[in-house]
Amino acid sequence: MQDLTDLYQSVILDHNRRPRNYRVLPQANRVGHGDNPLCGDKVTVYVQLEGDRIAGISFQGSGCAISQASASLMTVNLKGKTIAEAEVIAADMHKLITTGAVDEGNLSDLAALAGVHQFPARIKCATLSWHAALNAIKGEATAATTEKPED
Amino acid sequence: MDRFLSRSPVASGREREGDENDFPMNKAWANLRDDFPVLHQQVNGHPLVYLDNAATSHKPRCVINALAQFYERDNANVHRGIHALSNRATAAYEAARERSARFLGAASAHEIIFTAGTTDSINLVACSWGGANLGRGDVILLTEMEHHSNMVPWQLLARRTGARLRYVPVLGDEGRLDLSQLDRVLTPEVKLFAFTHVSNTLGVINPITELCARARACGAVTVVDAAQSAGHLPIDVGALGCDFLALSGHKMCGPTGIGILYGRQALLDAMPPWRGGGSMISNVEYFESRWAPAPQKFEAGTPNIADAIALGRAMDYLDDLGRDAIARHDEKLATLAYARLKAEVPGIRLLGPAEHRSGVISFDLPGVHAHDVVTFADQEGVALRGGHHCNQPLMRKLGLASTSRASFYLYNTEDEIERLIAALRKIQRFFAG
Fold it and tell me: Are strands B164-168 and B403-407 parallel, antiparallel or unpaired?
């Protein structure tokens, strides 16, 4: 399983086993949904925006270890950030997940997802919750779906 | 039964212990894996163990050669051709139709319509027969285990015609139909009853002869989805008494993009066409046309000539092995795999019956999502499928988001069950760690 330890790093296994911020956020004023119709994965991201700052963020859903860990790591890393900062992190993450490229600095433990790009079938698992979070922040009513051309 | 009398060890060449009487194989089974070029490769450093046969089967060399030979020697468009190649192509295409009629026990080749596959076949019935015969107040009866391809076309038809859908319930994880409910749901308003022969998720084999008889007694037309059974079990539409039967070539050693709709002649004769174009007409005027008789009425445009011919070759291959013997081989592997998975993989939740089943086994490993299972197994060279298997409503009913699925076919071996179990144990250790 040498190759798979790239994909399933201990950070990912830990967040899969004990997902952080896995709950409904009662004070949320934004909600974003994501679903992957091909595999049935679903995620709901709850965001509490105060001005342009993410004061609280949580998620619920079902999916594989990659999708759960990615969502969990996301909530930890986006909490307290401004919308602009969150969008930069999300863009860096998209690049990381699809190419494995790690920009110096601001991804920290999120870099655990760098191995995903070697498994093309699993990229959508990692990006789903991020699409849902961006939808929530932008206040879009529609569900994020993995079946969009930009993926 | 003559073809089963000659006994030889199964494909792996290993002698079996004391089971020759219940598992006789003819000589076509010897070295059968050599017939499938794709099986002989390494995946991620391990010999490939292909257990995704419910999605698609592999193709024996004779089928691949039939495709190549058609394009190298006989390629031409069929029907109305005068030249030599067109005559050869037409003869081979129509011979494949005759072969298909024999394969299914149809009364005549006129009852065989070539389609793109099971989905296409079911849509044909829904559009043509359904559009002409269903209306408000009528009921389409399905079962809760249907593949989306035997569900969504009927939903579309119901929306168009005002007919309603109704379902025969499935009983728990074992996945049998609740036949005690049949009297309740199979009422005189039911005009059509569509059901699968073998479930692609549960591996259960439905009592389709009984279902056809009950539907007939009620005056309902029957549609059998044989996608998971046509290459695995003997089928005789005459003995079965169904009105329509749909199958896909690629799940039975044939090419992708070709399938069959069997339809009872009297029904086909009365049905309107569903697609217009060349080949399906007898006379065309500027403002109206007359149709050719079935099956041409339902085959507008240039058909899938090469794949139909290769499908006929696949039927030869399956019948050389014997569909009875294939069924016994599938059941033996699936029963063994079910018992061993249950005994050797702690906590595993298995779907479908323990015995008297097809080669499809779905399972859930607690705490490990199906997509993680499939990714790990792939690293061990074991090809599985994970997801909802085009069975979303059934998954919801069983309280599952997705399952992993191993599906066996004629070239699989007991050694491959060993590899499957070893991979699953390794996955459990990894995620428990």
Answer: unpaired
Q: Give yes or no for B148 touching A (CB within 8 A).
A: no
pLDDT tens, chain B, 433 aa long: 333 333 333 333 333 444 444 556 888 898 999 999 999 999 999 999 999 999 999 999 999 999 999 999 999 999 877 899 999 999 999 999 999 999 999 999 999 999 999 999 999 999 999 999 999 999 999 999 999 999 999 999 999 999 999 999 999 999 999 999 999 999 999 999 999 999 999 999 999 999 999 999 999 999 999 999 999 999 999 999 999 999 999 999 999 999 999 999 999 999 999 999 988 988 899 999 999 999 999 999 999 999 999 999 999 999 999 999 999 999 999 999 999 999 999 999 999 999 999 999 999 999 899 999 999 999 999 999 998 889 999 999 999 988 999 999 999 999 999 999 999 999 999 988 7
B208: nearest Cα among B219, B220, B218, B223? B223
Query: Which structural domains are found in chain A, ordered by start?
Result: 4-140 (3.90.1010.10)
Contact B371 A4 (CB under 8 A): no
Q: How is residue B221 written in tokens?
A: 């037309």
Cα–Cα distance for residue pair B96/B314, rounded to 1 Å: 10
Q: Sketch out chain B's domains with CATH numbers.
A: 2-51+322-432 (3.90.1150.10), 63-319 (3.40.640.10)
**What percent helix, strand, coil does chain B show, rounded to 5?**
45, 20, 40
pTM equals: 0.90
**B196, B420 contact by CB (below 8 A):** no
B40 close contact with A: CB closer than 8 A: no
| Catalytic residue flag (residue B212) | no
Q: Do the beta carbons of residue B345 and residue B428 sit within 8 Å?
A: yes
Of B120, B177, B127, the closest CA to residue B154 belongs to B127
Task: Give the DSSP per-residue string, B55-67.
Answer: T-----HHHHHHH
Q: What are phi and psi of B180, to 5 degrees?
A: -65, -20
Work out the minimum CA distance from A85 to partner chain B, whole angstroms: 31
